[in-house]
Design goal:
This protein is mostly helical. Helix content is 85%, strand content 0%. The protein has one domain.
Amino acid sequence: MEKKSGHILNASSNLLGFSLLIITSLKITKLSGNTHLDEFAGVACILFSCSCFFSFLSIRTKNEKQETKLETIADYLFLFALFCIVLAVIIVTVRII
């Protein structure tokens, strides 16, 4: 099985920054009360953070079975966080149109 933990860690940390940028821009423009965008971005931040944590643990562990389990957890957390970001993008698109 190909190791994905490094890729998950890199992508999760980058998208965590993107999610934080969404939340910050909503707070600055005072638009956070009008949409559920900040809730989706907040959930995505938590999930991306957890994904980073589990992928890092997967890289650092020496136990092959535990490494696979941690990598799988990180992978699913990343997928759910990505879904939240997609919902945020859909909300932005609907509000612009």
